[in-house]
Write a structure and sequence with these properties.
By secondary structure, this protein is mainly α. It is built from 18 helices and two strands. Helix 8 runs parallel beside helix 12.
C-alpha cells in the first residue's frame, strides 16, 4: 500500500495525497501485528482446504476494503465505487468507474500495483495456505493437480520469479515501442496480470501503434498461461508445452475467432484491411486471456462480433494463471468428453476407452470424480452468470449490453460496452462487484468457506452443557 509513495520524488506535487496511503497502511499493519501476537502458535498446523479457503476469503476481503480507502479519500468517490475499483484491481478485472484523466499519478500507479499484486498474489497466497508446505496448493481448487515443484513454498517463489520477469521485460519492451516510462510501467503491470487497467481512457487504442500492440499480445498470452506451463517454457521443455490441452485449445480458438471477427465484423467497419486485421486479432486475444485491453470501442460492432467476444470471455484463460473465466482446461476436458462419448458409441461393449489427458509431463486419467466437479462448477458458473444478466436487465440495460458486461465482470476481463461507469445504478454496481470477486476466487472456494464460517459460528454460539 505504500508503493505509490515511491513516486513522490518524481511527482512532489502529489505529496498532499501521501496521508491517504499512510493512514490505512498503518491501521492494516497494526491489525496484522496485533492478530499475530494473539494467535501465534509455536507448533506448525496443517490447514484443511476449508480452513485455507477461509484465510484466503478473509484476507482478500480485508485487503480490498483497506485498498479502497485511498481511492475514496483522494478521488472523493463514495464507498461503493471505491470498493468496486479496488475489487476490479485485485481481481485483475479492469472494469473502472474512475476518470483516469482526472486521477493523479499516485492513484493511477496504485491501481496498477494492485493488479500486479492481485495476479500473482492469488496463486502465492492460496498455494501457501490451503494445504501447507507440501500440498497441491491452488491447482486442485482450479480443476487440476499439477504444480511447478513438489514443495508449494518453492513453487510460490518460482511463480514470483516468472511473474516479475514478465513485468520487467514488458516495461523495457513498452519503452522501446514508444511509451513513456510511467505508461510503460503501468501497462506492463496490467498486461502480465491480465488486468487491463490503463492510464488512458482509450486504453491501448490511445497510441494506435502496431508496435505497442505487438508488445501487448505476447504479454497477454504469457499472463494467460498456467504458471506450470510457463515454467516448462522457461526450462525449454517445449514438448510438454505444446501437448498441453490449454495451449492447443488456445492455438485453435485465437485464429478461428480472429478470422470470423475480421470477416463478419471488422472488415466492414474499418476502411483499411491492416487496421481491421489488427483489431480482430487484438480484441480476440484480449477477451480470451481476460486482459481487457482494447484498441477500439464496441458501440458500432454488430451482434456477431459481440457474441464471439462474450464466448471468449466466458471461456477465459489458463488454470493456475492470472486469468479468469471458466478456464481453458475445463473447456478442453469437456470437448474430450464429447469425443470420448462418440468413440464409446462406436466401440464394442467389452472394449476399454482411454480417458486420459496431459497435465505437465504426465498423462492423467480423468475419473468420474473430476468430471462431476467440473460439470458442477460450469453449471454454477452459468447459473450465476444468468442471474447477473437478469439483474443488469432489471436495472434498465438491454439484453445485449447485459450479456456482454456481466460476462466481462464474472470472467474478470474488463472489456466494456459502455455500461460500467460512475453513474450506473447501485444494484448493478454491486452485482458486478460480487461477480468479479466470485469469478477470481473460484465459486466453490468462496461458497465452501462461507458455509464453514456459518457452521463454526453456530457451534461457537451454542451453549455448552455442563455435567452434573
Amino acid at each position: 500500500m505504500l508503493s505509490p509513495l515511491l513516486l513522490l520524488p518524481v511527482y512532489p506535487e502529489e505529496m498532499k495525497h501521501a496521508w491517504a496511503f499512510l493512514l490505512p497502511a498503518g491501521i492494516l499493519g497494526g491489525c496484522g501485528v496485533l492478530l499475530r501476537r494473539i494467535f501465534r502458535r509455536n507448533a506448525y498446523v496443517v490447514l484443511s482446504i476449508q480452513e485455507g479457503g477461509i484465510i484466503v476469503l478473509v484476507s482478500w476481503s480485508a485487503v480490498i476494503f483497506f485498498s479502497a480507502w485511498p481511492l475514496s479519500l483522494v478521488l472523493g468517490i463514495d464507498f461503493s465505487r471505491a470498493v468496486f475499483e479496488s475489487v476490479s484491481a485485485w481481481t485483475t478485472t479492469g472494469l473502472s468507474v474512475v476518470d483516469v484523466t482526472r486521477a493523479g499519478k499516485l492513484i493511477l500507479f496504485w491501481r496498477s500495483a494492485m493488479q500486479l499484486a492481485g495476479g500473482a498474489g492469488l496463486a502465492v497466497i492460496m498455494m501457501s495456505t490451503i494445504m501447507g508446505p507440501t500440498g497441491v496448493g491452488i491447482s486442485g481448487a482450479e480443476g487440476r493437480g499439477d504444480q511447478l515443484v513438489p514443495h508449494v513454498r518453492r513453487s510460490a517463489r518460482l511463480v514470483l520469479l516468472i511473474y516479475l520477469g514478465y513485468a520487467c521485460a514488458g516495461i523495457a519492451a513498452y519503452r522501446l515501442a514508444g511509451m513513456s516510462l510511467f505508461d510503460a510501467v503501468n501497462h506492463s503491470f496490467a498486461a502480465v496480470s491480465t488486468g487491463g487497467f490503463s492510464t488512458r481512457p482509450e486504453s491501448i487504442g490511445f497510441w494506435d501503434s502496431p508496435a505497442i500492440e505487438a508488445v501487448s499480445i505476447p504479454l497477454m498470452l504469457l499472463g494467460n498461461l498456467s504458471f506450470v506451463t510457463a515454467w516448462y517454457l522457461w526450462k525449454g521443455e517445449f514438448r510438454a508445452v505444446f501437448r498441453n490441452g490449454e495451449v492447443r485449445l488456445m492455438s485453435a480458438l485465437i485464429p478461428f475467432s480472429a478470422a470470423v471477427v475480421f470477416i463478419f465484423t471488422c472488415k466492414s467497419l474499418y476502411p483499411h484491411l491492416e487496421k481491421a486485421f489488427r483489431v480482430a486479432v487484438f480484441e480476440s486475444i484480449s477477451a480470451l486471456t481476460t486482459t481487457g485491453f482494447s484498441t477500439v470501442s464496441y458501440g458500432n460492432w454488430n451482434a456477431f462480433g459481440l457474441f464471439i467476444l462474450i464466448v471468449l470471455m466466458l471461456i477465459g484463460g489458463g488454470t493456475c494463471s492470472t486469468a479468469g473465466g471458466i478456464k481453458q482446461f475445463r473447456i478442453h476436458l469437456l470437448w474430450n468428453l464429447l469425443i470420448w462419448e462418440f468413440k464409446r458409441a462406436m466401440m464394442q461393449r467389452q472394449a476399454i476407452l482411454d480417458r486420459s489427458v496431459w497435465e505437465g509431463d504426465k498423462r492423467i486419467l480423468v475419473d468420474d470424480t473430476r468430471i462431476r466437479q467440473i460439470s458442477a462448477f460450469i453449471f454454477l458458473y452459468m447459473a450465476i452468470y444468468g442471474a447477473g444478466v437478469a439483474v443488469m436487465c432489471a436495472c434498465g440495460f438491454s439484453l445485449q449490453d447485459s450479456l456482454f458486461e456481466f460476462a466481462s465482470a464474472i470472467g474478470t476481463v474488463g472489456l466494456s460496452i459502455g455500461v460500467t461507469s460512475a453513474t450506473m445504478p447501485g444494484l448493478a454496481l454491486w452485482a458486478e462487484t460480487l461477480a468479479m470477486f466470485l469469478g477470481r476466487l473460484e465459486f466453490i472456494v468462496v461458497i465452501v468457506s462461507l458455509l464453514k464460517i456459518g457452521r463454526d459460528g453456530r457451534l461457537l454460539m451454542r451453549p455448552t452443557v455442563k455435567g452434573n
